[in-house]
Each structure stands twice: as C-alpha cells, then as structure tokens.
Design a protein that fits this description.
The structure is a homodimer of 299-residue chains. With 299 residues, chain A is α/β, with parallel strands linked by helices. Helix content of chain A is 48%, strand content 13%. The first copy, chain A, has a 5-stranded parallel β-sheet, sandwiched between helices. A 3-stranded mixed β-sheet of chain A has the order 6-7-8. The first copy, chain A, starts with a strand and ends in a 31-residue tail after the last helix. The interface between A and B is large, with 71 and 71 residues.
Chain lengths: 299, 299
Amino acid sequence: MQIGFVGLGTMGRPIATHLLDAGHTLKAYARSPLDEPLASRVGRLAHSAGEVAAAAEVVFLMVRDTPDVDEVAFGERGLVHHVTPGSVIVDLSSVSPAATRGFAERMAARGVAWIDAPVSGGEVGARERTLSAMCGGEVPAFERVRPLLACFAQRIRHLGPAGAGQACKLVNQVVVALNLLAVAEGLALARHGGVEPALARDAMLGGFAESRCLQLHGGRMVSGDFEPGFALGLHLKDLRNAMRWAADLGAHAPALQAVLGLFEQAAAQGWGGHDHSVVARLYGADAGPRQPDSASLSQ
Amino acid sequence: MQIGFVGLGTMGRPIATHLLDAGHTLKAYARSPLDEPLASRVGRLAHSAGEVAAAAEVVFLMVRDTPDVDEVAFGERGLVHHVTPGSVIVDLSSVSPAATRGFAERMAARGVAWIDAPVSGGEVGARERTLSAMCGGEVPAFERVRPLLACFAQRIRHLGPAGAGQACKLVNQVVVALNLLAVAEGLALARHGGVEPALARDAMLGGFAESRCLQLHGGRMVSGDFEPGFALGLHLKDLRNAMRWAADLGAHAPALQAVLGLFEQAAAQGWGGHDHSVVARLYGADAGPRQPDSASLSQ
C-alpha cells in the first residue's frame, strides 16, 4: 500500500522502517533530511504534509504536541487541502484528547476518518515492534488500519471514540510518572537509611514493588546514566496535557498535580533533554557523571 | 532442626507449614488456637514466647508491629529470659529499623544473634514459596538461617547490618503504596474521561506503565472486589513507620507524605480490613458491591 508518513523523528524512523519492511511504500514529509539507510528507502521527501495526503489513502502522523498536529493537518500546507475522501489519518503522536475530537470532526466533514493511536514503549519498543497502541475513533476505520499498526505494535487496543486513545495515553503517562516517582523516592530513602540503592532495587524485584520502572529506570537511577530513553521534556509535555485534561473534566488528581510539580522542577534544572528517570536527581539520589546542561527539550 | 515460631497468623501459618514440610520440627507460640491440619502437625503450643526460646536454637517471629516484637522478645514472658547463647532470632515481622537495631544490640549482649528478615509477596507469596526476604544483621548468622528462609522465600537478599532488612521493607512498602496510588488515580482519570477502566488497564499492560500493582490490584479495582490480599490497615502501619523513619533520617519524602494521607483517609472510612487496593474508592473509581464496614484493622 502507498502510505503517507509525517514526522520521522526518534519514534517515526523505526516505525516507518517497519512499514517499509512489511512491503509498503512511503510518501513522507519531515522537517529534517533523513540519514541513510532510511533516506534511500523512502526516496524524495514531500515538500509538505499536503503533498503526502495527495499521494496516500492512509497517512500516519508522529509529531510532538497538539499544535504540531494542528499545523500538519490544518495549516496552510496541511493535509486537509489535499486529502482524499475515504482516506484515514492515523495520529501516533501523544496530544490532547479534546483537540483530537475536534480534529476528527473537522476531517469527518471532508469524508476522512481520524484514528488516534498514540503508543507506549518508547524508542526500544518502536525498534523491537513491542509498542502498545491505544486507539480511538470509528471502528471500521480502526479495523482498516489495524494490520498496519500490527507492523510495529504488539498490543493494539480500541478504547472508544475519537480521543479515547489519547485519553488512555495520558493516563498511561500519569501512571508511568508516578511509578518513576515511587522508585526515585524509594531509592533515595534507602540511601538515606544506609541501604545501598542497587541492593534495595534488586531485593524489591519480584515482590509487590515490581514494575517496569523499577526494572528499567531504577537501573538508570542506580547507575546515574540518564541518556534517553524518553526525554523528561516530552514526558512533562504529556503531564501538562494530562493536568489540563483533568481540570477540564473536573477530575480529582492530587498525585498528578504533585508529580507534575516535580517534573517542572527537574526541567527548571535544565534536565529536559535527559531521560525522565533523571527526576531521581531531585532527591540527590544518584552519583552519576552527568551534569545538568542547557540542551533542554523542555519549554 | 527444632525451630521456634512465634505468631501463626495469615503469614505465619503458611511459612510454618513450609518449614514442617522441609522436615523441621516446631515449638510454636500463638495467641489463638490453631486450626487443622496445622494444629496436629505443630502439637502442643508453648505457653509463652520464653518457652519457645528454651526449646530452639533458631526462633522465627511473625507478629504485627514494633511493640509486639518488643513484647515477644523482651516482655515478662519473652524470649530474652530463656534464650540460649549462640542461638538466632529471625524477625519476619515488618517493624521499625531503629527499634530493630536496639533489639539486636540487647540480644547481642546475651550472645544471641538477631536477623531482621521481613518479607514481601503477601499471603499468596507465602503459600507459593515466592516471597522476597529482605535481611539485615551479622553475616555469619544470616548464612546460618538462609537455608531455613529458602524453605519459603524465592529471593533472599542481605542488605546490611541489623535494621537494613526493615529499612528495605519500608522502602518496598512506600513503592507499593505509590504504585497503587498511580493505578487508582490513573483508572479514575480514565473513567472520568470516558474510557472504561478495564480497557485502559488492559491497554497499559505491556507498556512502561506495567507493574505488579497494575496487574493484580488494578484487577481488583476494576472488579471492585476488595477482599484481602493485604489489609489496608497493615499497609498503613508500615507507611506510618516509614514516615517516622524518614523524619528521623531528615529525608525528603513528599510522595510518601501524600500517600500516607490518602491511606489515613481510607482507614478513616472504615476500610482498614479491606485489601489495600481499596484506596481506589477515594476516587469513587469502583462500582464494587462491598460497603465500608466497622471491622477495620486500622488504629
């Protein structure tokens, strides 16, 4: 199938590669030129998102935040001006659920389906085809693109109408942030109490405290290696979206509010470009070699 | 080996059974009479903890909290009055690290070793011999009792001197409480946002949000079945001990403070006897059939 793809960053590149491996051809648009070997497999990049839409019946988006999706879809040179009725836009980005409902409505008015399908599992999951895709939108359109999602996602779930995938992804990011906080505060307490954090982490694995964060991010906290992984600045963006969403819903979210504050604090230290496990440094819990730098992704 | 055992409650019973299965004989003391089949395998109960100490070179304790250990070990009819120099006391209870150091010193003065070996994994772990044992104390005494711990624990770790096992267990309980809170708040947010909590939980499993709590307690929250499991009142006891410990250490523990507040709130609702996953009810996140009752274990 001729597939459109907008956004070939850290996540977009491995995902596009899997689609190519599955025998599809891509018409892609990206802000930066591609490196080899992807560059020669993709061929000439489109000059705009609109050009991508004109060439494909399914268009994937993988960009940073809500305004980026808005620009790509509805901006001056956006998808909306060239998209064919009957086609499907699959937004893999992690953005606002409310805005997503608006995007879906505006595209529906042109006969185009919108599936929100943000993913969890990070760059490693994208490379290893073990992502979880959390999907929202009309079921027939979802069923149409499911085989394409299966090229890079292991777990594919339909959660409800447009925006439901984004809602679930925000929930996911809140849970991850709190699990990270649990490990960061726990290991800091251990250290204060005279127990080697590496030993405490090891002793807790296999018990009720077990989590993907204790395993993966706990290891990073213990070693003090905060190379991403998933950048704190990106996770902060998700937590801000989650907080706005919770406020709009009138939902009680005291733990989210607390962890958002800690992430803001970490970003203010200039750690936005480090792996999100760097929040442990707020507790002085690492003896890692890296210093805060100014190359922060956080705004 | 003739082993002493004090405290045959929810956790003590399956642990004692595994020691018997391994071919050891028990001299046991418990406040309540035993049910069959354990009663006939254990035989006549001792009249006091002291009587247990007189009959065994290794004595296991599995009681509720610090004052209970103090009473059993140093009370009027306690171990200290009959214990043989060269023997080892293994405290499986989850109690204060600082008090544990005091217990160890007082017993050391009588030539008796004290190993703190609190466990994680709950009643299920105790039945299935998959507990994690977090140990503190002198290494030779630890090595002496390690084969006995292996009768019921899968993961046995030595964390440092007396109290280090208790310190690690408190850390473990803090991490579990925060992981529970993450799932409770996350599923409540999903529900508010129109996503079925059961679907959200399922979609998140396998991603970075994965945890033992999402798997086990998330399932309980979704079904609204809060039969313990591990009682909220017992977990609250651990969190209070952790908060005192953190305060004594001068450690920064904002997340612990927040989650302790939520557990206190849940206990005040009369939910102390329910499984600790009942904290989800603070968010109104369950449609379960159980009502708060007065049979609360929390003080």
